Amino acid sequence: MIPTTWQRAWLRAGVVCRGGYPLLVACVILALPSSHAAAAFSFQRIVNSFTTTPPSEPPTATYDYVGIPAMSGGSVVFGAKTLGPAIGGGGLYDRIEVGTTGGALTNYAKRVVSPGPNPPVGTIAFFFDDPAISGNQIAARPSAYDGTSYKAPIFTYVAPNAPTTLGVAWGAPSLFSGSVAYAANKVGVNVTQLQNTFVDASDAVPGGGGALFQSFTPYGGPFDSHIDYNINYAVFLAKWIDASNVSRVGVYRWQKSTDTIVAVADKNVSIPGFPADKFDDNFAFLNTYFDNVSTTGVVQSARPSLAGSTVLYSYNEQFSTPARAGVYRYVNGSLAKVADVTTPNPSAPGFNFRHFEGVSTLGSAHAFVANSVVNNNAAIPSGAQAASIGGGYGIYLDTCGMISEVTRQGNILDGRVISNLEIGNRALTTVKFKYNLAFRAEFTDGTEGIYVASTSSLCYDPIPVLADYGNLFSASLVQLPADPGIGVPIDATWQTRVQQGAAANPATFGVDFEAGLIGVNGLPGNNPNLIDFTLDSGAVAPEELALAFSEDLALEGLRLDEFDELDSLRLTIGGLTRTVTFADLHDGMLPLADAILAKGETIGIAWDSANSLGDGFSFNGLGYRVVPEPASWLLASGCIAAISGLPWRTRRPRA
Predict the structure, then answer these.
(1) Of 386, 379, 373, 385, the residue nearest 297 (C-alpha)
(2) pLDDT, tens digit, 9 for 90 and up, residues 562-606
(3) Which of 214, 238, 263 is the last residue of a domain?
(4) Residue whose C-alpha is closest to residue 624's, from 579, 591, 646
(5) pTM, whole model, 2 decimals?
(6) Are residues 340 and 382 both part of a single domain?
(7) CA nearest neighbour of 531 among 541, 523, 546, 542
């Protein structure tokens, strides 16, 4: 039910009442949180070692161990082993399960000891690695015996026990909207290719001086070929030999529309924060984790994560002095750090991050596993660095311009003490304006489980949006479709303009992807990467960014970077305008106290034309919730008056 026009007027005035009528008595004023409430997490168990297997199994069967999960919407897929005969090799699963945040648990595939319908090609001894999930489909790679030899084919399942065989793989599959990508042996040649892409060993390495890719299983063995794929792009690790006959490994991204490959991180790419150094240590792209295998030693490649065109990956030079390690984001040709050895760890005040493992991104948010250094000096002797990489791991979420702890070793979860944490490259997803993050936890009592952490996804990050929608740079008014994969849950309209009185000149976006600055590029005289002013026939004309949405929203917060004591802006929400100064902000966030923005109306962020001292600001996020049905949105008793001190003043003329 959509509020009526007069109800919206009351909502904008700050009064929301039971039954839809404005009451003038028995109202309370609540202290509403800013949109940095994303630091609060709730947790839900999917399975643990005490959980019995799905109903089709013997009622006494329980899980012995579980693998790293992947998540899509409210569904979580993971490999598992139940108590019973041991399967050779640590960390190999004999079954694939799908659990949901609604509580359901279903077995999709399991080990079979004789040829049968699961799969039709013959016996499955075990499943190699973490399965993938997209929508209602999963993909997995088992060891299957066809009567002659064991092979490692890729299977997809739309429903339990209904597999489709795609081909023999050399690595874990990636799945997106029913399409699967994986590394495979090229028939008759001892090289690999990326199935379902146009990338193979005949492709030249970007910046490689004519060198060709050698392998997409860069370190040998069955567990180190890792790609991520989303129809339009693929990101992958690959090995090649340079002109000096040195083996090199890097992270690369392929774009389908142009059939081009770019180097995200390799020997030719500078490390952000260490411009004189390159990503040239082969083993620095390795993670030191694998399910139920010791975390010491090199055992698995880092698996990069992809959302839209955005790439997220981890990198670790374990014994370098000074230390070089971090999580990095590649967006629209620019590489920037999310966190590195110079970033304070919110779990340990006074200490920086030191070692980084699994990563997952939605473009608008990034999750990663990391621990801290033994002291706050990045230049630690190698022995001390090695000693520091072995404990104190936590899961962290980077969103709304801040890094928050999700949970960490030593915390209590499900009544037990956490001893180890892991996430996969598809751990993070959005559902109904929440981030859901699936992870694997081990506990000090020897048990383990799969859990989902949830928090608000109220920050609207324009960086991945602008990276994926180039038309925003070429027009002043653009309709943007919903794209939850990069953090745009509902349809939106973006408009940039130079506002001079009632007249408005069109403008375009200006973005510095490396610095994370988003502004309006208007007439001459402006800073293209900030919202400031231009000169219109010699007169000062403020720039403005306007956003409208396809649903009624309760606006919770606005993130403004580069906003200092001399800056000010004119903020218009649904026609009501106020002036915002530096004193109104809290840690870069402007609380909006659930101000109502009706469907189709705009929030306008404009330079204050009366300001002659400031130098502009950047739009870096919007926090909001879709307004639910009134019966569920209104409190059970009384009514809420939104903070009455907000100085909403004039109704600005529409352009």
Answers:
(1) 386
(2) 999 999 999 999 989 999 999 888 777 787 877 899 999 999 999
(3) 263
(4) 591
(5) 0.77
(6) yes
(7) 542
